[in-house]
Amino acid sequence: MRSRLYLTRAADTDGEEADPDLRILSRKKANYARSGESMTLRWLDGVMVPEREPTPHDDSDIRAQVFHEIARAWDDGQPYSDAPQARSRFILARLPQRLDLPKPQVERAYLALLDTGLIRTELRDRHGNLRGLKPIKRMDERAGGDI
């Protein structure tokens, strides 16, 4: 494998150092990865740690979006599937694109919904043998509307 990484200081719009503890690690060249990606790191207690960027959505908001999208698909007769073999309906392939959210966030929300019992896999159409994710309870039936 060949790759080239650069660690540079973070600069503000004027070209001056914004924060002396911030660095940007960028991939300039790679055979087996996308080049041009970067990660912001912070010097903290002698170690460089990834700088957490604020997320635009709260986890409960993402769970609500995922739940409502699963309910919509079930009601429309084309439920999402938890099986990767159902390529066109596989939840982790289609839902992040549809909601325009990162796949890890959608996956966490989906798994949380499964763990709490708000969704499960059921037979949608016994004649066509169509299985998919079905919402068990509506969000507003739970205490406070929270997932």
Structure commentary:
This protein has 147 residues and is α+β, with helices and mostly antiparallel strands. The chain folds into 2 domains: 48 residues, no CATH class; 87 residues, Orthogonal Bundle (Arc Repressor Mutant, subunit A). 27% of the residues lie in helices and 27% in strands. It contains 3 helices and 6 strands, in the order E-E-E-E-H-H-H-E-E. A 4-stranded antiparallel sheet has the order 1-2-3-4, with no helix packed on it. A two-stranded antiparallel sheet has the order 5-6. Helix 1 crosses helix 3 and helix 2 packs across helix 3. It is elongated. It starts with a strand and ends in a 12-residue tail after the last strand.
- Global shape: elongated
Give the end-to-end Cα distance, rounded to a whole number of Å: 44 Å
Counting copies of identical and different chains, the oligomeric state is: single chain
User: Uncertain segments of ≥5 residues (pLDDT<50)?
Assistant: 141-145
Order of helical and strand elements = EEEEHHHEE
CATH class group of the largest domain: Mainly Alpha
User: How many domains make up the 3D coordinates?
Assistant: 2
State the secondary-structure class: alpha+beta
